[in-house]
Write a structure and sequence with these properties.
By secondary structure, this protein is an alpha/beta fold. It has 7 helices and 12 strands. About 7% of the residues have low confidence.
Length: 268
């Protein structure tokens, strides 16, 4: 079934209207006919199985048959990926999207060989975002994961307070038992911690904030891994060092291994 992303404004209770590039692709490239089924995502987590009702010159009218089951993980995973050499980043991006990440941050760390100037970084990001969109459509994602501009190590660490779980695979981390403990924790019901109702308020005045999705950060080093100084800084920033086994994994293997484990425990 062909998969398209539509603007929420073009989706009503019973109908979806496709215009522009979506219209051109469905009508002229795929040569859709009335009655053909199409999957539509609103980019915000809702999917609709639709039937082509009318093929016009300015728009295509789709009739909504039913809402699909949710295809997203019950947590937002952000992959902070050390920039690898050659075209490995494109492979990692594609597979990370298939495995359910919410976003990808290309990371410049001490052992990163690839350094992109601002102009080249913007062009790379545009290509990477297109790869993410194609992978999202192929893997039946309900959203298109966001690919950020490359970020420096220190800037990435400053984002950690936004995450409820911060993981960094490291070859010298404690064994698989600690990894198992961390992953089993994903199966427990989770609520955002209580916060003071106002600055300076005591515990008696705390109130619960509404539930929101858990956010998980996964940091993967480039070829050469993270330096001991970076690991120390990561631990000081509240990151949990994770073992992925007794073998040394390539950067692209480590990323997919960590994301596969998270997907398994989150969806179980």
């Amino acid at each position: 079934m062909h998969h398209f992303f539509a603007e929420a404004a073009d989706i009503s209770e019973r109908e979806v209207r496709l215009r522009g590039e979506n219209l051109r692709h469905l009508k002229n490239v795929l040569r859709a006919r009335p009655g053909e089924r199409v999957l539509i995502s609103d980019g915000e987590g809702t999917d609709y199985e639709c039937e082509v009702a009318e093929l016009g010159e300015e728009e295509i009218l789709l009739r909504i048959c039913f809402r699909e089951e949710i295809h997203e993980l019950p947590a937002d995973i952000w992959l902070f990926q050390g920039l690898p050499k050659s075209d490995k980043m494109e492979f990692i991006l594609q597979k990370a999207v298939e495995l359910g990440v919410r976003g990808i941050v290309p990371l410049e760390s001490r052992n990163t060989v690839v350094r992109l100037n601002p102009g080249k970084a913007a062009a790379k990001r545009q290509r990477w975002q297109a790869i993410a969109e194609a992978a999202a459509k192929q893997s039946k994602r309900s959203i298109i994961p966001e690919v950020m501009l490359p970020m420096r190590w220190k800037d990435a660490l400053s984002l950690l307070p936004d995450f409820s779980l911060r993981l960094i695979p490291y070859e010298n981390a404690r064994g698989a038992e600690r990894t198992r403990e961390l992953l089993l924790g994903l199966r427990k019901p989770w609520k955002e911690a209580a916060r003071p109702a106002e600055a300076g308020a005591g515990a008696e005045n705390e109130k619960k904030t509404p539930d929101r999705r858990r956010k998980i950060a996964v940091f993967i080093g480039p070829e050469g891994g993270f330096s001991e100084e970076e690991i120390a800084e990561a631990r000081a920033a509240g990151m949990e060092c994770l073992s992925l086994g007794k073998r040394i994994l390539r950067t692209e293997t480590a990323a997919l291994c960590a994301l596969s484990l998270l997907m398994l425990f989150l969806e179980d």
